[in-house]
Amino acid sequence: MKKWLGLVFILMGLSAIAQNKIIPAPLSVKPAPGYFTFDPTTYFLGNDQVAYKDGYVIKDFLIKYYNLPLKTATKSIGVGKHIALKYDSTLAVADGGYHILISPENITITGKNNGGVLYGLLSIMQLIEKTGNTVQIPCGEITDYPQFQYRGMHLDCSRHFFDIAFIKKYIDYLAMYKMNTFHWHLTDDQGWRIEIKQYPKLTEIGAWRDGTMVGHYRDQQYDNVRYGGFYTQKEIKEIVRYATDRHITIIPEIEMPGHCMAALAAYPELGCVKDTTYQVAKGWGVFEDVFCPNDSTFIFLENVLDEVMALFPSPYIHVGGDEVEKIRWKNCSHCQQLIKEKGLVNEHGLQSYFIQRIEKYVNSKGRSIIGWDEILEGGLAQNATIMSWRGEEGAVLAAQQKHYAIMTPGSHCYFDYYQGAPQLEPLAIGGFVPLDKVYGFNPIPASLTPEQATYILGAQANIWTEYINFPEQVEYMLLPRMLALSEVLWTSKENKNYDDFLSRLLFHFQLLDKTNTNYAKSIYQINYKVTPASELNKLNITLLSNPQLGKIDVQTINVLNGSKNNFTYENPFTVSAETPYISAQLNGSIKNTPTTQIKLKFNKATGKSITLKNEPSKKYSADGGFTLINGVEATVNPSWNGSEWLGFLGTDLQAIIDLGEIDSIHSVTIGCLYDKLSWIYPAESVQIWVSTNGKNYEQAGKIKYNGDQKRNAITISSTVKTGRYIKIEAINLGTIPSGNPGAGSKPWLFIDEISVE
Ligand code: ACM
Ligand code: ZN
Q1: Which domains does the chain have, with CATH numbers?
Q2: Alpha helices in 177-232 (DSSP H)
């Protein structure tokens, strides 16, 4: 009897801790029977100052998340149960690792170094079970350490400014999920955000702009509201202390030699063009004005860096180096003289010279530089670390040259990109980095040897804030994607599993709800795929969502009689011209999950067969030719992967649609995108031919394009009134006209729905 009960307890214990909810998932969890139950006398007992402080940090979290107040002490107090916290550098785990032993009597957390105790505390915090007034943790043993030593998050505070109350909240989110680096982007074209005592105009002038771009860059609209803000040195010291207590290193970024309009507005003598009025930028993008590499500029930058290094103890100082236009240097007599004098190849050599000179200075102060991957161009600085953002090539090149690299490729780490369908998301710059994509990221580029791979320090996600005006929006872009990144960086490959992560994530959503965090619910969006149906004039709809999140409620509306059909989604279903409206939503316990609305436009070409003579570019190939007749009209945002656009770079669209039977044909309409800033131009002309047998075609109409709408429907009236096959040619403009971005290059031709009436 007793034995049997014991077994039940063991199984209960197993199920409790085996279904742990910890993010990032720990290395090893061994369950044991029983529970540690908190009582009013439970306290943290730290064996040294750092462990004591770790207990102090977690106290805040326990109050916020569990309304559980605990005391902290450096020596035993009274008879209360305690949670012993200690650092022991001999612990056999990697840096930042920890070991936890939970028994009914007490909990012991031993950290090796670098936040190990805090990380152990965070793990047990996530194991807390609260029922009524009982707060407990299942017994067991955890051994854990991170896979990567650099676990970073970036925040751009130049494009939009966030006050120190929010910066602390941001640091809390990082700490909660065992991230250890905050890359603070403090200067850029749109605002200088750090007080520098020797150069007061940097913040008097450089921290303020006379307006801000509104809407998307492609709309080129501005408000004229004065905007700005900056951090005083006193505030920065407070933030550095706050981060240090949470085992987070802050790497400040002072951008050079580009992205410096705000500094030039304050001190115009730092630029190449002397008789000009520089302004703090109101809009986004890359600007031609950059620092002129003359002696007074270097003195200025060294003085600025002195103050920066005095504020930030970080071993690394980030000096930017990305997106440096060379045109001013080309036209500057000083710059050209310097290129000759130093025997540099060209302006790229000058960029190298600039960064290397700054690096020597930073090194002389006992620190190292980090730069964006452009600093590889024209020769790498001595011992610089590369942040690889334009893909992984930068990191590969760096590691091959035995330089350290941090992975932050746009494909997986740009959290300013969309995480769901653009039509269901707040406006963002573009791109598509959904949660599962982040989760699937492998920071080690496949082409590296094991020895080269040791130069990859870890990864970081970036939050650029052109389209992120408020703290709530930062939270939305950060969460839950940072939780996926934290598991990428902390958890061993063997313990990573996306479905398991999702099930743990649902618990973390509840935690975040307790602090009114505006995390994104984009994973609850239902995606869909339209495919050809076996019956003519019909389409098949497949709804896509993770089954763990719940069943999908579907409604279709019959537009002829207004009747509605409600059902639970099981399998792909067929719709027709009578039922073109479909809405789908998860039937789960989560409130306010987004509804996906599908509005199909049926016409004579919809769902028919189509062949393309020219393949579109791989990047914008969607579902090939079928995309053009699937009943779904593209939106004007072409950058999302799920986009409906087919993109042709410098080439034409040539398509043949087979209607399946001879039918009347009055007109053909073809959708073209016009987005000059993205080098996308509508067809220069469109022509159609009609045939009854697919062999002999008769010309049926041609028009030259002369509109200027964002999305153009170019309609050609057919002079041939019946036929079965329609040949369509949309001619690429060929060359981008002068005076426009990309002038002289090949333009994109973006085509979507073709309809035949
Ligand atoms: C960057 O996104 N310009 C580093
Ligand atoms: Zn110059």
Answers
A1: 18-144 (3.30.379.10), 150-514 (3.20.20.80), 526-599 (2.60.40), 609-756 (2.60.120.1190)
A2: 201-204
Type of residue found at 49: Q
Cα of 321 vs centre of ligand 1, distance in Å, is 9
Q: Assess contact for 139 and 147: CB atoms under 8 A.
A: no
Strand pairing category for 653-664 and 181-185: unpaired
Q: Which two tokens stand for residue 545?
A: 């969502």
Q: What is the phi/psi pair of residue 626, to 5°?
A: -55, -30
Question: What does the H/E/C string look like for 474-496?
Answer: HHHHHCCHHHHHHHHHHCCHHHC
Q: E-assigned strands of 186-332? A: 187-188, 191-192, 208-209, 213-214, 221-222, 227-228, 249-256, 316-320
| Contact between 156 and 52 (Cβ < 8 Å) | no
167 contact partners, CB below 8 Å, separation of at least 6? 155, 157, 239
List all residues whose CB is within 6 A of at least one atom of ligand 1: 322-323, 372, 389
In tens, the pLDDT along 563-593 reads 999 999 999 999 999 999 999 999 866 667 8
Task: Answer whether 0.85 is exceeded by the pTM.
Answer: yes
In tens, the pLDDT along 692-731 reads: 999 999 999 998 877 666 667 888 888 888 999 999 999 9
Most informative mutation of 253, 259, 290, 322 for ligand 1 (most atoms within 8 A of CB): 322
Q: Is 29 exposed, middle or buried (0-12, 13-18, 19+ CB in 10 A)?
A: buried
Contact by Cβ (8 Å): 573, 531:
no
Which H or E run contains 702? strand 698-704
**Active site members:** 188, 259, 323
Looking at residue 462, the DSSP 8-state letter turns out to be B
- Asked if the peptide bond before residue 69 counts as cis, ω within 30 degrees of 0, the response is no
Q: What share of the chain is helix, strand, coil (3-state, %, to 5)?
A: 30, 30, 40
What are the strands, taking DSSP E only, across 235-330?
A: 249-256, 316-320
Outline where 496-570 has alpha helix (H). Answer: 498-513
Q: Whose CA is nearest to atom 3 of ligand 1?
A: 322
Residue 5 clears pLDDT 60, i.e. is over it: no
Rounded to whole angstroms, what are the CA distances from 438 to 178, 458, 474? 17, 14, 17
pLDDT 10s digits, 448-498:
999 999 999 999 999 999 999 999 999 999 999 999 999 999 999 999 999
Write the DSSP symbol of residue 414.
B
